[in-house]
Design goal:
311 residues; alpha+beta; Beta-lactamase; 5-stranded antiparallel sheet; 3-stranded antiparallel sheet; 14 helices; 8 strands; binds glutamine
């Protein structure tokens, strides 16, 4: 990545302007309503937090408000499973962009039960199933939460059980995906264990400030705890760049040029390797299920900082 980082003061002033601009635009998108508990969230909210390599944290808007991280949790479950079984996970899940919706069943049928990548739902379900092997759902969840708390250096990160139960009641597509995986012999644990653990991991709640801190290990920032090897962090970054926004991943790479992972709670974790860990939240989504204002803010931030993995 070329060029110097902006000073924390210049970045802070920019984030304040950006937050004001987002509210003026008022282009919020629609909250995810297939998880009833998320349908009640006010879409007109925006928060951003940027943790720089020198340890300074700049933030604006609702950066301290907790939100449901949903699919962003898949980054951390992948980090855990790589630590647990390493490369063997690639026998059960691929590493190619899907070009399809995050909950596509079609692709799983075509590819005979080997999901395209660990960030679409089917792939994340395989990762969670692997984390469950030989352990209880409670222990598997503890491992993910423990990893995130260590990464963020914050024990005040929890699962919102109401969100997990809400998805448990309505998550029929995920139920279908797990059953498909099972029918192809790519599920090791009982369907309900894999689903329950997955719904709870998606229901982890964090604020932008907490998520930006947790992202330190993925961004390889100085001072981050040594819980993820640099090689694995690099590989997770590659997958975030190519697969982190489902069928909008190409456009995000084109316009923002940084690895990122979205969630249907409206969150985004974005990585400027070695420079910054960025968390953005705005709950209204676009048609691809990514935060509408959050994606706009990511573009503005990349323009302002000049950060890009492409030099
Ligand atoms: N829990 C959500 C689901 O499985 C996560 C999807 C997402 O954030 N894109 O549908």
């Amino acid at each position: 990545m070329a060029g110097a980082n902006p000073t924390p003061e210049a970045l802070q002033a920019f984030l304040d302007r950006l937050s004001a601009e987002i509210h003026e635009r008022g282009d919020w998108g629609k909250v995810a309503d297939y998880i009833p508990e998320l349908a009640d969230v006010d879409p007109a909210q925006f928060g951003i937090a940027v943790l720089l390599a020198d340890g300074s944290m700049c933030s604006a808007g609702a950066a301290r408000v907790g939100f449901s991280v949903q699919s962003i949790s898949k980054v951390f479950s992948l980090a855990c499973v790589l630590g647990r079984i390493g490369e063997q996970i690639w026998q059960r899940v691929g590493r190619e962009p899907s070009g399809s919706r995050f909950d596509s069943i079609l692709l799983l049928e075509l590819e005979k039960g080997i999901p395209r990548n660990p960030f679409i739902n089917a792939g994340a379900l395989v990762v969670t199933d692997e984390l469950l092997t030989g352990r209880t759902p409670r222990d598997a969840l503890s491992e993910i939460i423990h990893f995130i708390r260590l990464a963020a250096d914050d024990d005040d990160i929890h699962i919102d059980r109401a969100v997990a139960m809400s998805e448990q009641d309505t998550g029929d597509r995920n139920r279908a995906l797990v059953n498909y995986l099972k029918s192809y012999g790519n599920l090791k644990n009982p369907v309900d264990y894999a689903l329950g653990t997955y719904f709870h991991q998606c229901a982890i709640e964090m604020s932008c400030i907490q998520l930006a801190r947790a992202g330190r290990v993925i961004a390889g920032l100085p001072g981050a705890p040594a819980i993820l090897s640099p090689t694995r962090a690099r590989r997770i970054n590659a997958l975030m760049l190519t697969c982190g926004h489902y069928d909008e991943s190409g456009d995000f790479a084109f316009r923002v040029g940084l690895p990122g992972k979205s969630g249907v709670g409206g969150g985004l974790l974005i990585v400027a390797p070695g420079r910054a860990s960025i968390a953005i939240w705005s709950p209204g989504l676009n048609d691809t299920g990514n935060s509408r204002a959050g994606t706009f803010a990511a573009r503005r931030l990349a323009e302002f900082t000049g950060w890009s993995v492409f030099g």
